[in-house]
Amino acid sequence: MELQAQPQRILLPAKVSFIVLTVALALLFNLLPWRNTAGVPDLTAAVLAFWCIHQPRRVGIGVAWTLGLLLDVGNGALLGQHALGYAVLAFLAFAVHRRILWFPLAQQALHLLLLLLSTQLLTLVIRIAAGAGFPGWTYFAGSFICAALWPVLSFLLLLPQRQAEMIDENRPI
Amino acid sequence: MEHQPPPFFNRGPAPLVRLTFFVSLAILLMVLDARFRYAESVRQVVALAAYPIQRVAMAPADLFHAVANYFGGTAALQEENAALKTKQLRVAPELLQLEALKEENNQLRRLLDAQERTPRKSVFAEILYAGRDPFSRKVVIDKGSQSGIQPGQPVIDDVGVIGQVTRVYLLMSEVTLLSDKDQAIPLQVLRNGLRAVAYGGAEGGMLDLRFMAANADIRNGDTLVTSGIDGTYPPGLPVATVARIERDAAYAFAKITLTPTAGTNRYRQVLVLSSEAKAPPPPAEAEEPAQKPPKTKRSRKRE
User: Fold this and answer.
1) ipTM of the complex
2) Which domain holds residue A60?
3) B42/A27 Cβ within 8 A
4) Can you tell me the distance from the alpha carbon of B193 to that of B265, in angstroms, rounded to the nearest whole number?
5) How many separate domains does chain A show?
6) Mutate which of B11, B22, B137, B199 to test chain A, going by most A C-beta atoms within 10 A?
7) N or C, where is chain B less crowded by C-beta within 10 Å?
8) Which of A86, A84, A77 has its CA nearest to residue A52?
């Protein structure tokens, strides 16, 4: 299959404040009282992967590790479990960040699904090694939901960068 | 002069180096946390940092509860009020007798020279949220070391034991539910006083009664209460009822599954009991012969 070169928009630079805001919102979503609902999407991982792909110089492995540590404590999980998972996720996202944006959104979502599943698998292996039981196959459902949300997420998170700074009637961008 | 790359190409250490660094840091933390429990101070600091985010995350749920309460209206409240009144009337005779029975019990215990049972203090708390960790079963309550909560205290609701405090922060505590895989509780069959230990981790939030002989006197529907021999749980609190017994002649033990009496799915209010039962210290170990000047085999051989 030959990749169609699609017209790419020139985006405005991303604002750090917007990155912080979105990550904080995703963290809030993760810390909502879910009451052991199975298959809740790990939105923090998805937003983190998004910024690692789009802004690899701002958001990297260190940020991912810190976020993971916050989630570990917030969820009462084994300390370092999310930190390790997110660090690996950030690395994988960095590894594919030059290539993935050339694909259409549906195929980008497939890439993301693989990244999230491998992160979850790593977490599962760690927890089982530390003595926990297998939580059931619905554990992996969150990754599929996150991957399905990828087009929406990409649209929303790129929205502020798509606005033209100076609106010029003669030169609409 | 050494040639330096222009600063706009400078991206710090290579990603693989960074990954290795952070992964080893995470593994170090995990080993410290899982094996040695050294990471508690790190956890305390991060917990304090995460506390505001957690409180904000609680807000939508609180709002939902408030709105649901408001629109639940007077009908539901009246119904609940009537049910509570009936319940109070039903238990009133037993309650009235309780004081007399307590006094009688204490007197009998004095006669028998047994230790008197002391009433325990309790702290009222509310469940903030259930932990999102799918590997363990925990809830977080809104009282911490500031309210005098200590690790190991039993937690009950209005119908029975729900679990035990396992980790205490300044303003919150984590309660491990009885259905957690690593949680065990000593029990007693109410009907005949048979003692046993129940473990969590059975499917669907049930408990397992392990190591009971295949011919043990346990029937379906039996009520199990805490036996109190561990010194942590006060004796006599209802814990579970027998749901299913499988007696297989091929195994030495029966497979007994219990349904917990209490559930965290209904109300958010719980009581944390203080564990200040003054159990006598265990008898000292017999004097070991090693107290004498050590004399190893090797030294004896040399003599």
Assistant:
1) 0.82
2) 16-31+40-160
3) no
4) 30
5) 1
6) B22
7) N
8) A86
Hey, which residues 183-202 in chain B have their CB within 8 Å of chain A?
Answer: 201
Q: How far apart are CA A98 and CA B15, in angstroms?
A: 14
Given pLDDT bands bounded at 50, 70 and 90, which one contains residue B299? Answer: very low
Task: List phi, psi (to 5°) of B105.
Answer: -60, -45
Mutate one of B135, B137, B176, B183 to test the A interface: name it (highest A CB count within 10 A). Answer: B135
How far apart (Å, rounded) are the C-alpha atoms in residues B265 and B129? 11
Residue A156 in any domain: the answer is yes
Domain assignment of residue A55, yes or no: yes
B246 occurs within a structural domain: yes
Does residue B22 belong to any structural domain of this protein? no
Cα distance from N-terminal residue to C-terminal residue, chain B: 72
Q: Residue B173: CB partners within 8 Å, gap ≥ 6? A: B125, B140, B141, B143, B144, B145, B149, B165, B167, B272
Indicate the number of domains in chain B.
1
Residue B180 belongs to domain spanning: 123-276
Q: pLDDT confidence of A172, banded at 50, 70, 90? A: low
Helix then strand count (H, E) for chain B reads: 3, 12
At A95-122, the pLDDT tens digits run: 999 999 889 999 999 999 999 999 999 9
Residues 6+ apart with CB under 8 A from B23: A84, A87, A88
In a domain, B230, yes or no: yes
Neighbours of B24 (CB within 10 A): 11
Asked whether residue B30 is domain-assigned, the answer is no
